[in-house]
Description:
By secondary structure, this protein is of the alpha/beta class.
Amino acid sequence: MKIALHICCGVCAAGAVKKLKEEGHQVFGFFYNPNIYPEEEYQKRLKATYKVAHELHFPLEIGIYDSKEWFKETEHFKQEPEGGKRCEVCFKIRLKNTYHYMINSGLDAFTTTLTISPYKRAEVINKIGREIGRDRFLVRNFKKREGFKIAIQLAKQWHLYQQNYCGCIYSMSRESRSRGLKGK
Length: 184
Ligand code: SF4
């Protein structure tokens, strides 16, 4: 199948694309992450994703970096802990746009690299994906069968940038958050 793959960063893309290709799918990458703060961090993750697209030979589309819209939609949940309601809204925003990318590009199905993270619950992401795209959403848990370990191995091999926080300002440490704000 022709799969629209939402990509959150280079490391996760490395593991997930490898798995999808092993399954015989054709991957079309879609980097769409208005949650990432600050923009310098967004650029680092995008650069790593370009490198993976080059290494694993798949086309890459870049979504709009509409961070103001993301802040507006998650504002109400800014006090939520990581893994809570804010993350569900964040997943929904990114998966909805990936669904539209799949439809507009005439692809067969869509899924996301997000389930490869050991910090994210695949069942929550898969439920949201199914609500958006019904059977057009490919239910996956890329961390299974050493998925995350493989991603880290490839990241080392290709010298990919590896982040130390999920992505939004609320997931940064207090120290790096104040550094980011100063640099704004
Ligand atoms: S912690 Fe991660 S998933 Fe949750 S809102 Fe922030 S960037 Fe999105």
